[in-house]
Amino acid sequence: MATMASHTPVPDPTVATAAQQLTVGFDLDMTLIDSRPGIKAAYQALSAETGTYVDADAAITRLGPPLEQEIRRWFPEEQVAEISDLYRALYPTHAITGSLAMPGAREAVAAVQRHGGRAIVVTAKYEPNAKLHLAHLDIGADAVIGSLWAEAKAEALRAHGASVYVGDHTGDVRGAQTADALSVAVATGPCDADELRAAGANVLLDDLTGFPAWLEGYVAERARRGA
């Protein structure tokens, strides 16, 4: 979760075009990592620091959208920017070690790389904190782009030539659609399978443990079509 900073994602100059190299984008929270324990602790720390009650148990059921959306539930608009910055500052101390890798997360990223592809993370989370999570959990993404939500994720997906985007939220489906990428949805976050399907997900998986097998078929079809 993060502020939607205004920036233009810069692709790695060594990346081949989408037609030449497989690039798969992944969301972070509730797709690659279960950040609920850590985020709950961070909100509890924020409450202690500010003296303002935040229902941390409720907040962790709404992961996906930018941080400011949640902060507005508890603080007046004129304090949102300041409190969001405070939350992000508290985050490394309270949220990193308590968060877990989702089942199949490392294997999903490794599967992309095993096929000679690049696995990138495109997330609404503040980018430095996203990188801390991935380093702590030893999830070896090739690039991390933060502070992008829903349709805005298409900026990074296009810049890096991603043909697939994997996420758990309807906002991730919209991001994939905007980028003309295949939307692979995992029903591991706040949006259930019916919501993801209704949003237009092209592929629906229970979780990431099924992703490597799906990717095998996808790569074989790309090769058959000469893509």
Describe what you observe in this structure.
By secondary structure, this protein is an alpha/beta fold. The protein has 2 domains: 23-34 and 101-226, Rossmann fold (3-Layer(aba) Sandwich), CATH 3.40.50.1000; 36-96, DNA polymerase, domain 1 (Orthogonal Bundle). Helix content is 44%, strand content 12%. It has 10 helices and 8 strands. It has a 6-stranded parallel sheet with strand order 5-4-1-6-7-8, with helices on both faces. Strands 2-3 form a two-stranded antiparallel sheet. Helix 9 links the parallel strand 7 and strand 8 (203-205). The protein is elongated. It starts with 22 loop residues before the first strand and ends with a helix. Mean pLDDT is 93; it is low at 1-8 and 12-19.
Order of helices and strands: EEHHHHEHEHEHEHEHEH
* Quaternary form: single chain
DSSP, total strands: 8
**Alpha-beta classification:** alpha/beta
Classified in CATH, the superfamily of the largest domain is HAD superfamily/HAD-like
Pfam families: HAD
Protein name: Hydrolase
InterPro entries: HAD-like_hydrolase_sf, HAD-like_sf, HAD_sf, PGP-like_dom2
Keywords: Hydrolase
Secondary structure topology:
Elements: E1 23-26, E2 33-34, H1 36-50, H2 56-59, H3 67-71, H4 80-95, E3 100-101, H5 105-114, E4 118-122, H6 127-137, E5 143-145, H7 153-159, E6 164-167, H8 170-178, E7 182-186, H9 193-199, E8 203-205, H10 211-225
Parallel strand pairs: 1-4, 1-6, 4-5, 6-7, 7-8
Antiparallel strand pairs: 2-3
GO molecular function: hydrolase activity; protein tyrosine kinase activity
InterPro entries: HAD-like_hydrolase_sf (IPR050155), HAD-like_sf (IPR036412), HAD_sf (IPR023214), PGP-like_dom2 (IPR023198)
Protein name: Hydrolase
